[in-house]
Amino acid sequence: MASVGSISSPIGEKPAPLAAEVATLAARQHGVVSRSQLLEIGLSSAGTASWIKSGHLHRLHRGVYAVGHRRITKEGEWMAGVLACGAGSVLS
After folding, report:
1. Which of 2, 14, 65, 74 could be a cystine partner for 57, CB 3.0 to 4.6 Å?
2. What pairs with residue 67 in β-bridges?
3. pTM exceeding the 0.85 threshold for the entire prediction
């Protein structure tokens, strides 16, 4: 079974619930997530560092990451900018 901070699981097992939750969040946000969102859903700072090192997260801005790969859409770039600016930020 995969541990917290790990995105992979043994062959034949379902993906770790945390990885699935990160993937669901990223899908709603054009492929990007913020560090604070990762902490909220249970990925520790050490887990985040591990995901960055293993290539599962790619830094776009301070505390904002593309999930899985760097090739995000224009909407993903916009979302990353909004997330980087923090709570209450909007794009118009």
Report:
1. 65
2. 57
3. no
